[in-house]
Amino acid sequence: MNTQTSGHEFEVARHSVDFGPRLFFLLTFSIFINGISLANSISVATFKSVIGYVEIGSDSEGVKRKIRTGDFLDSPGSIRTGNMAGATIEFIDGHAVAIGPNSTVKLSEYAFNKSDISKSKIQIELSNGSFRARTGSVGLARPSQVVYFIGKTQIEIRGTEIVAVASTDAGLVGVLEGQVVVIQGKRFPVGAGKGIHFQYQTSHVLTASISDLLRILRSEGQSPLVDFYALAAGMPLPPISEYLISNATTSSGWLLLTPETTRSNGTSGAASGGGGSASTR
């Protein structure tokens, strides 16, 4: 399948109708047969599934390496996917991200302290392409400490699952669960089932239901943005982490799983592991 870039459009699969279901199947199958526990690892995340060419590069050292299913993530860096490629990542707090094809996602900061969640922080940046993301225990207990950047626009989360797309000059976010606040000059709350389209260099913002917003954008000639959204929306995320099973109420009203209730339920997983951190300044 060919891709092309012109002007301020970004690469997009021409035959997205055929490619989406195939990528969904491959990622789902790979997650099923390659699931890896992080309980005994000091890494902050694992690549649960990798399809096609995916690489991670260190922004400070300029070193790149190819990623395979089962690889661990133990330092900040930029993850890039090739054409017809994708990756799903699960962090030790249960945060999960599925990265679409022809995308660049930067893990700018990750710190997780399960004994004192107030010391945890996550910042993830999508500079181009698309991803689907679901917050973990940090986002549920302390949503203000999880920040996404879609292009140049900051997104605050509120216990959230979203699909996001970034092009050269615009961004698109659809909220599947929870709520986000998009900071684009003003603060724009966006709830579940709603979407928002914004341009980085102007104050132009369009909000509507996700289906209506995609229809409007396609009618305005922004099919590449819509196609990227559709690809990311169809990508599977790893199952909800055992760490997030509802057992212990936090001050924010969300529920977290403690090591004690994990053992009583006969499960094991990230809850039994230590905290981890990775950050870049």
Q: Care to describe what's here?
A:
With 281 residues, this protein is α+β, with helices and mostly antiparallel strands. The protein is built from five helices and 20 strands. The protein has an 18-stranded mixed β-sheet that branches. A hairpin with a 3-residue loop joins strand 12 and strand 13 (170-177). Helix 1 packs parallel to helix 4 and helix 3 (210-219) runs antiparallel to helix 4 (223-233). The longest helix has 19 residues, at 16-34. It is globular and about 45 Å long. The model is unreliable at 1-19, 28-41 and 245-274 (pLDDT under 50).
Which helices and strands, and how do they pair?
Layout: H1 16-34, E1 45-51, E2 54-57, E3 64-66, E4 72-73, E5 77-81, E6 86-91, E7 96-99, E8 104-112, E9 121-134, H2 137-141, E10 146-150, E11 153-157, E12 161-166, E13 170-177, E14 179-184, E15 186-191, E16 194-199, E17 205-209, H3 210-219, H4 223-233, E18 248-249, E19 255-256, H5 259-264, E20 276-279
Parallel strand pairs: 9-10
Antiparallel strand pairs: 1-4, 1-6, 2-3, 2-5, 5-8, 6-7, 7-9, 8-9, 8-20, 9-12, 10-11, 11-14, 12-13, 13-16, 14-15, 16-17, 18-19
Give keywords.
281 residues, two-stranded antiparallel sheet, 39% strand, disordered N terminus, single chain, globular, 20 strands, alpha+beta, 5 helices
Summarize this entry quickly.
The chain has helices at 16-34, 137-141, 210-219, 223-233, 259-264; strands at residues 45-51, 54-57, 64-66, 72-73, 77-81, 86-91, 96-99, 104-112, 121-134, 146-150, 153-157, 161-166, 170-177, 179-184, 186-191, 194-199, 205-209, 248-249, 255-256, 276-279.
